[in-house]
Amino acid sequence: MITNIRKKKLLQGISAMMLGFLFVLTGPSQADSANKSEIPAKKQDSRPDLPKSDRSTDHEGSEVDLLTKSSSVSISTQEILPVRSLTNDLLYQILSADIAEQRGLDVYAYETMLDVAKETADPRLARRAAEIAVKNRNIKDALQAVRLWHKLAPQSEEAQKYLLGFLVLDNRLDEVKDYFSSRLAAATPEKRVALFYQLQQLLAGTKNKSDAFAIMEEVAAPYQDIPEAHLSLAVSALMKNDRSRARDEVQKALVLKPDSEMAVLTYAQVSSNTSEAIDILSAFLLKYPESREVRISLARLLLGQKKYENARQEFEILLNSDPQDLMALYSLGLLSIQENDYISAEKYLERYLGTSSAQSTENRQELIQVLFLLSQIAEEQHRYDESLQWLSRINPDEDDEVALGVEIRKAQIYAKKGNVNRARKIITDLANENPYEREKLLLTEAQILKEVKRTKDAFNVLKSGVAQFPQNTNILYDYALAAENLGKYGIMEESLKRIIEIDPNYQQAYNALGYSLADRNLRLDEAFILIDKAIKLAPDDPYIIDSLGWVFFRQGDLDLAEQNLRHAYKLRSDNEIAIHLAEVLWTKGNRQEALSFFSKVKKKDPDNDLLNSTLTRLKIKL
User: In the record, which residues are listed under signal peptide (predicted)?
Assistant: First the structure.
């Protein structure tokens, strides 16, 4: 039984369909007398004005999303619609097909719509039949309908596009080959470039990459003097993991067109390692310094290698070239935050907000991130009112998840301002409004209490959370840390071991337990085993490397301790890592460098508990 609301929507859909097809077959002035009217053919917009299906399929490497979403293809040609009178029988078939689709009878809907398309010779009805077939995930039926569509509208670029797409999906690659061979032979040099890129993109959707490469190789054979032919071959070879052939082809492309950005980017992609890729792109930029895409790729590779200063230089070159380059401004802002350079970060991010294109819809998500980052920077510097002002500029109506994040950040800031009760009320209200977010909000409330040094209250909140969500490893983890802060080491160990039982790959549980033992100078061999396990799970985690250095320090191996702590600090200039490294250096007699690290932390965070307790224990006065 259909509810009233659903019934109303269904009737509205049928009504829209009826009016739409009356217009298709009779024109707006004839709708009331459609039974017998003969309408002369008239030129119409070539894009079929038909309803879209609600469902679509996404396939990687084998199928594509066709017809179920609005096409972005620009149609320059016009279709001529047929001369046809709308009879009661035709109207009945159209409506029955639509109703059948509404009820899930897709096979009947498809067959009926296809029959009507054949009878009326209307390309838009053929397109509609193809939509129904795609919705039913029937590629062969969709291909049949698209063939009819293309036959009825041979000048339609959209129909042509979909015909090629479905030929690939149905693995009819010989037809694709014949089509492109014919088009390339008749095309101008400029058009051939576009055709090679089109063929390359189509073949990317094939299941058998070797077959796809063979097709590309045969089609490209007569065009050895065209760099795009070699580049398309290189990409096809890369898709079938033939890196050697890909490298050969892209080198040929670069000989023919040395300034090709696409070719050099592909060359970097097929290089043997990241260092070689960096060298390839750097050499290209020496010759062609204005190449924006190549410079962006180089900067990203440098970031991946943690060469932050080199990456910064590339982004600054981009910004000097275009002072309103949003990508460069955003990247430089993030890099500055990474280096704790908040002054520079604010400068870049505020410049981002001041650009003319920052407020456009397509940049909405990045704009939200920029506002969050500016709020975070202000918060880090205890400018809490300013932090709240940045958050107030985020529109909470656009995205529920964003709205939740904004309210959580507000709660955290109010707590830091000293208004813990208001902060907790925000969290409580959010939990009531968002029951599926209770676990996340519970962790947030505990973190707020911990930050204002209400450790016992945080422990009690987490204890309640463990009772409600006993399998939630994140709650168990925070519960363990809260227990440790209260000296409840038995609860801490029990909770961390419980996490390891639930998730043997939860590296932070091994690390936390190992570090706690090392910090208390207990069971150091066991501590080392636990931290070593964590390192194997996350070899580049600076906090775990810090723990490894600390356990070496406790075991008396000062050289290994220093080596690991320096490595950890290089990965992340964190205050706690700096304090550990400073203590090791102090113990080794390197007092000057140790004092330098202690002073840096004191300047950034004068109230740091670990710093002050370490200075007291070592009897150091800064």
Answer: 1-31
